[in-house]
Write a structure and sequence with these properties.
- This protein has three helices and 19 strands.
- It is mainly β.
- It has two domains: 103 residues, no CATH class; 108 residues, no CATH class.
- A hairpin with a 2-residue loop joins strand 8 and strand 9.
- The longest helix is centred in the N-terminal third of the chain and has 4 residues.
- The radius of gyration is 18 Å and the shape is globular.
């Protein structure tokens, strides 16, 4: 019996007939000092999603590129930096069965270096990428396409230097809706105006007070992950 016939999801995935390997991949590869194509079976071209790459050989940055912002742009989850432009290209294309690397660059494809990549395909009950322009409105609601309540939301201001804010459903019972974690620091749970509300639903994520994650004129991206109460996957759900 194939592994996909018996494995159970930590997060519900897309409904009957769809398997976790259709929407998520952990893929290890060796850098070749040139361009190369990573074939992991994930349709990032047609469906969209997120690719996250980390050099396992050197102390290099985490590189994140998603379909909402396009392959011309990338973020570094270990830094507060604003969005940077892929020049020269790091992740150069999203493909129907993976992604392509553009250059001999230490963060993604240097010769004699080893890398890990994680690909998340957009899919109901699994993962979504959303962007918005801040309008300084309290309790703003940002629509997502999960069709189920998120379990975790990661938000980054891509216009300027700012922390990566993480809301997780398990934080609220002990800390209230203003509780957040930050990807780029080693801090414990923080409480601030920069947060996602616990009233986040199957249709939208709800931001906190005006400013914070909704400052007027600033651009934002959110990576929205479903929780395991979204449902099952595979032929029998």
């Amino acid at each position: 019996m194939a592994v996909r016939d018996v494995v159970q999801a930590a997060a519900g995935v897309g409904g009957a007939g769809e398997y976790v390997e259709d929407v998520f991949s952990t893929y290890l590869y060796a850098g070749n000092g040139s361009t190369q194509t990573i074939t992991n079976g994930i349709d990032l071209d047609g469906e969209g999603g997120l690719v996250w790459v980390k050099n396992r050989t050197g102390a290099n940055n985490h590189i994140l590129t998603d379909s909402a912002r396009g392959t011309a742009n990338f973020l570094r989850s270990n830094l507060t930096n604003a969005q940077d432009t892929n020049s020269p290209n790091l992740i150069s294309a999203f493909n129907s069965n993976g992604f392509s690397l553009g250059v001999n660059y230490a963060d993604v494809n240097a010769s004699s270096n080893n890398y890990a990549s994680w690909s998340f395909r957009k899919s109901p009950s699994f993962f979504d990428v959303v962007t918005w322009t801040g309008n300084n409105t309290n309790n703003r609601q940002i629509l997502h396409s999960l069709g189920s309540r998120p379990g975790m939301v990661v938000v980054k201001n891509i216009s300027e230097s700012a922390d990566w804010y993480v809301w997780h459903k398990s934080l609220a019972p002990s800390g209230g809706s203003a509780a957040n974690l930050r990807l780029n620091t080693s801090d414990a749970v923080q409480y601030s105006d920069y947060y996602v509300e616990d009233s986040t639903s199957s249709e939208y994520i709800q931001l906190g007070l005006a400013g914070g994650l909704n400052e007027s004129g600033r651009q934002y991206v959110a990576y929205v992950f479903a929780h395991n109460d979204a449902g099952g996957f595979g032929d029998d759900g």
